[in-house]
Here is the input.
Amino acid sequence: MSTFARFFPFLKPYLPRMVVAGLLVMMVAAINLALLRLAGTVWDVITVRHDASRMTELIGLFLGLVLIQGLCSMGHSYLTAWVSQRIVADFRTHVFAHLQTLSVSFFARRRTGELLSRLMNDVTVIQSVATETPIDTAKQLVTFVGGIGFLLAMNWRLCLLILVLLPLLVLVARFFGRKLKFLSTSIQDHTAALSTLIEEVVSGIRIVKSFVQTTREERRFAAQVEQNLSLTMRRAGIMALFIPVISLLTFSAAAAVLWYGGLQVIEGSVSPGDLFAFVLFAGILIGPFSSAARVFAQVREAQGATQRVFEILDARPDVSDSSTALAVDRVVGHVRVEQVSFSYDVRRPVLFNVSFEARPSELIAIVGPTGAGKTTLVNLLHRFYDPTEGRITIDGRDLREITLESWYRQVSLVPQETILFGGTIFDNIRYGDQQANEEAVHAASRAAHAHDFITSLPDSYQTIVGEKGINLSGGQRQRIAIARAILKNPRILLLDEATSSLDSESERLVQEALERLMTGRTTFVVAHRLTTIQRANRILVLNQGRLVETGTHSELMDRKGLYHYLYTLRLTELPS
Here is the structure.
């Protein structure tokens, strides 16, 4: 219950409507009971009193109650649906918003399909138990209490025959409930794994086809489906046994009532109408017992889903604003990295005691062999991560003393793998400035050498880029990303091998666009192009997480160290 209690704040705004829905459904249950009792009276009027006038009056009353019951049922059905869908929408929005507050490290440790499953499937399970179950329980409670009340008033001996099985029902429910909770949690975990597999294959479909691995992926998917199916069928088997056992116990009580009550009718101590009503009441009590068993199973299932979703909500960002952090409107661009060390995992340090300085509007190139820590350094400068030791300052202020949002507004990242969002080219370019007008978007596109190819497309700036920009070439995607960065107008620019995967012509156009973008900005570039390296104000040479050399191109070439080796190697790789 403590787990479900955490969901209460999301229910609270809608409690008045839930109460109204509960009252309406309780009226439905109460009218059901009244109709059953009325049916017994009508039966006595027909079989014992033979009073046609009274029979007509009672049937009229019966139809009037049915009409009122129908109106109450309509009201509670609509209210229950509205409340449950509103709550699930609010809760999903809350979880999604919380996800966006988490640090990059959180997403590096988790798979997309798993998070998607928790956000969609698990939230739906919670919503059902948190909204529909309480309202249905209110109905069953009125049915049970009212039914037992009528039965006790009519014949307490017969009523005891039903109540004697109640402890047994509780024990059976607890036994099956434990198994259902375990299986339901396992099914949710496997469903998340299945979602992850689908997301990986669909997003990497070109690699799957290129390496002729469709059969392998089909086998992986089929194996995962079979595991899910096996668990689902085990749960279905338990449910298939669970509900009939509960029903069998309940019907056994009804049969005993019919037998014992029949004897009393034969003896004349009970009227046929009373026995008829009693049997109907005994039958309707099957509903609460069966519902209790079903609710118990659903609650057990929802416990696993709730724990999985609240694991996300309990996660806290590794990088966040301190209580003393202040917002900055504009920075000059003087960056200092002071004795910075960093590790994603304490067992494997990535950077060791790195120190350097970048003055405003300088171009700093970062070079080094694969795995040297270049991208990690860019991530630290962007403050996707905080240093394990040391500090990074901007204009003399520690980055940790600046609010994340205000710092991110000063920085723009153009990564090696361009990320575009589904929608139009226009929307992607003004992603960082939603207030930008058409003229500003066009100006940024021209500066990025993107305007000409965009206007040549059938829908121009309203062209749909497709998922991750699949409808565009690599060079086109990169130029749109540069236009997006130009429009944002950052003071700090981070380029992570932004031209490494392009053909010569696209690389030339992108490089020209980048040179315009870098003008007047403090720029850090993980260098790929030789001309970029040569014109850098300072070159940082990383090797195995350490800053081993720093200087201008000519200075480093004269030292004949690692930079000289890497630069010479790059020259030999160029086509003759």
